[in-house]
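Feature request disguised as a bug report, sorry. It would help if multi-protein outputs had a clear separator. Right now it looks like this:
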Amino acid sequence: MRCRILLAVFAVVASAQFARADSPSVTAALSNSETMVGQTVDLQIKVTGPGDAQPPEEISINGLEIHATGQSRQFEMRNFATSSSVTYTYTVLPLRAGRFTIPPQTVHAGGRVLRTPELVLNVADSPSQPTTTRPSRGAQSQAAAARDLVFAELIVPKKTAYVGEIVPVQIRMGFDPRLRPSLIEPPEITGQGFTSQKLQQSGQTSETVNGRPYEVVTYKSAIAAARAGKFEIGPVKAKAQVIVPRRRPPPRTRSRSPFDLFDLDDPFSDPFFSNPFAQIGERRDVEIRSEQVQLDVKPLPPNAPPSFSGAIGNFAMATDAKPKSVQAGDPITVTT
């Protein structure tokens, strides 16, 4: 009799824990509450509870373009209680400056009607180009010569894509090793109407390009367009500090580097690089830019199935559970 009572109490407690775990809730957040015209931010709606959530298909706000771009799911088990959550991601593209209010959105989950919190997005005008003091002719020639010894290249393997499709991109940055470069502003993919993932350095190699040696650093990223149309991706911009010989009156005779054989005006013909103790070099800032790349973005085909959530492309799904070895009552986190 006592055993049956204990089992009944255990069943009641376990069912209560599972019921609490299944109670749905919703929250929403912007990746950044401040941005500029043409620069996108992410809106994420997270639903915790049953897996039958129905997020808003369209969010219409005058002055903003908002498109669904994907979703992710997570499961967790702790002390017999299971919980799951789904995060729905939307891309928000500001079309004009101002203060925008994203009203509460309706989400259906677990037979209940949930409302997201109200969000505010402040959008500023795109900044104008700053005015700078014009450098001297000697400084200009040095900077130009140094720029000839660095390069940036943006590689987009696809010429056409659909709205929301994740397109992988690659950035290559090359430096003549004699410049002894120091990157002070990391590479950035500029442009409007698309989002880009955080850059990740994927490798560094030594290459010879047009007869000159370069140390080439490769970065990987991905972009996704927020609307249909023809886009100019890039240019990639970066800033580095390099060492160059300090200018002095030209000597009567001057040694030439191998790169000056064809009248390339190589700055490293200066004796400084053959004898570093002959004079003091100085560091200069060099801006690095790549060429732009064209990308034609098409609208999504009509009559999408009801289950379509905005994800486009080739995807791989992996499920993992941690820890691998547990005892009765230990929590297990399952990530998909």
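(second protein starts here, but nothing in the output says so)
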Amino acid sequence: MIVSRTPLRLSFFGGATDFPGYFEEHGGKVLSTAISHFAYVSVRKEKFYDKTILNYMKKETVENVDEIENERLRECMKLIDINFPVEIFLQSDVPSSGTGLGASSAFLVGSLNALWFAKHGNLLSKYDLARMACDLEINKLGEPIGWQDQFACAFGGTNTIEFNKEGATVAPVKTTTENLRMLESQLLAFYTSRGRQASSVLTEQKQKIGVNLAALDEMKSQVVKGEQHLRNGDIDSFGSLLHEGWLLKKTLASGISDKDIDNLYNTAKTAGATGGKIAGAGGGGFLLLHVPVAHQNSVRQAMREKSLKELPIKFETEGTKVYHVGETF
């Protein structure tokens, strides 16, 4: 059996500048981190039935790859030319879609990683995996998304990721381990229990790139400010900058926030949060907050009263990995 483990991610600053429609002309830049919650993909050669079996939120049993309903797995298998029956399991530490933690791209990167190893017996570079995932999601499947999730999940770590016509560069944020631990200890995340399809929000964002240029330019500039705050250990200013970024993000598309989300965010602010945002495209999923330690109990209590469940946050230094258990293919 081959198992891949791929981290999910939190994006702090620069989101939406990773759309090709923006970065190919203006250059994009994001600051994000991988977190120690994972998407798992296991692959084993099917020995008893001449069929491929897929297990995710539903179960599929097919004789031909073209019959697969899960379009991401179908295109992964076609791209890598998996021409033998396999059984594939997908599992995640969090709900597998609509969370804003990049789970869809993490599953895709992990699937490519595991299936490539199953077919070839070696590993692609993290860069090649991320670019392959971007090409499949955006060009093949026509998803209205950017590039940051694929690179964040493939590489792991806390990074500045830049995008341009030539591709992407991933650079670890230059700061101390102590500063990273300090930021980590002051981030709280709560599940709103509102799953959403990111495509509608992201489609509107993509369509409005031209009219949102000033906001996107400012969001990109926040990456540099965020790096500086993290390098200087000024975590309170990092939190305040998250608030400024959230105000900008809400202007990009109509579905990013609503009265209920604003109410949750304002409740957290009143209880002591410095800043925050809805993770990912918006509209639901996880509410990410920066909260000084002295106010964390009051924020947790306020969120419990809203029936929100907390997701512990721990940064992850490693990207997607493959584990090989048992006999080879």
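Even a blank line would do. Unrelated, but nice: The CA atoms of residues 8 and 38 lie 6 Å apart.
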